[in-house]
Amino acid sequence: METFTTMISLVSCLLIFFLVYSFIKFFNSKRRGLPLPPGSLGWPYIGETFQLYSQNPNVFFASKEKRYGSIFKTHILGCPSIMISSPEAAKFVLVTRAHLFKPTFPASKERMLGKQAIFFHQGDYHAKLRKLVLRAFMPEAIKNIIPDIESLAMDSLKSREGQLINTYLEMKTYSFNVALLSIFGKDEMLYREDLKRCYYILEKGYNSMSINLPGTLFNKSLKARKELAQILAKILSTRRQMRHDHNDLLGSFMGEKEGLTDEQIADNIIGVIFAARDTTASVLTWIFKYLGENPNVLKAVTEEQESIIKSKEESGEDKVLVWADTKNMPITSRVIQETLRVASILSFTFREAVEDVEYEGYLIPKGWKVLPLFRNIHHSADNFREPEKFDPSRFEVAPKPNTFLPFGNGIHSCPGNELAKLEILVLLHHLTTKYRWTVVGEQNGIQYSPFPLPQNGLPVRLFPKTQKINADEENPSPTSQRLS
Ligand code: HEM
């Protein structure tokens, strides 16, 4: 009797197992049976990479969206990919189902920045790094460095008075210096030139072909990467000997509880410089351009900034900017928002499906890349009226949810966004109250390096407002434009 009962239990278990197995199989095969999104995979292996890079990439994205709708498949850079351009799909990938889509970068880029940098990770290690980065960049922490950011902004403008400058290169220097300040505080400024020299070589290789042979940019860049890590090791060892607490990013990474290795710290410091510099510099360059093209907006920003100076003078306050001043710049803040939207310097980001995922009746197969197209979302008439027009006043009303994503969304969204906005506001305060500028040469072209930028980095001539300008300087070429 006992044997019979055991047999019955065994058979029941097998039956249940079989049913569960069949259900999973049935479910998976149904999922497998789902159609892929519409679109074309192009030629074998090369796919549509050529179509993407032989023109302005945004034309590729926009024309595909027009043809196939807000979710379509393609094949770029050797990978089958799905591009999405609706706010709901972006939320699905970046927020609600973020665990099903891991961040992904080409192996050569990972090697250059460092495999242990925050961007490449998910789960506990990512959460720990994110906590440390946010701690260093939250308003409470960055408030304290406003006077130093101000000095950097003033020095950077003063050193270029009367000169013809490449706006983008100047803004890169400024955003690099602010990034170092936020990472190392003022202590390690003596390493600034060495860090700059190595980082600039590293950056050239980052955007080059990944051929590691003596003399190639990629090879030089890997060597510079090594030297950077050595400089950082020196800074770490000096700090450990000094035993002072620091409120900067390095201090946050070095906290004893955190248990990060020197290599993890180095990868993340280099990663943060990378994330902070060209992004902020590109946005600043576009702001120079848009303010130049919109004299009424420039006038409104200038008046807002002058009124801050005036009210400080009247109340006998110190002249230096404080956090409360930067929170009292609504017009200037809307100019930043509108520039982030129109320029959409990060047109998209990359994820990879970690398993088969169903979205709106389509299959997103495991291993395929998924690209939320921020720029398409920002330039859709469904989300922003007259999307091609530069109109900061549109931000007087908050945008619809998930339609404004300049800093991404979800667990990988930008932890440096407060710092980026702060350093832009500080620079604009001094630029608009003390300077006027003229754009020199071509004004309508766009270059991709890799972010979209005004042609040739927007060459401008910068004058102190106190200086009288002679006619030649004011109008250096037929296409130049007097602003302010
Ligand atoms: C206007 C300037 C900036 C823009 C437009 C920008 C944009 C973005 C975006 C869109 C992402 C998310 C990428 C994704 O989801 O794949 C991101 C991530 C990130 N940004 Fe920024 N960023 C800017 C400035 C900064 C600054 C100043 C810092 C640091 C000081 C910074 C540090 C980071 C880091 C560390 C990440 C990775 C976060 C993670 O993976 O958890 N960014 N940024």
Automatic annotation (TrEMBL):
The chain crosses the membrane at residues 6-24. SUPFAM superfamilies: Cytochrome P450. It is an enzyme of class 1 (oxidoreductase). Its EC number is 1.14.14.137. Pathway: Plant hormone degradation; abscisic acid degradation. GO terms for cellular component: membrane. Pfam families: p450 (PF00067). This is (+)-abscisic acid 8'-hydroxylase.
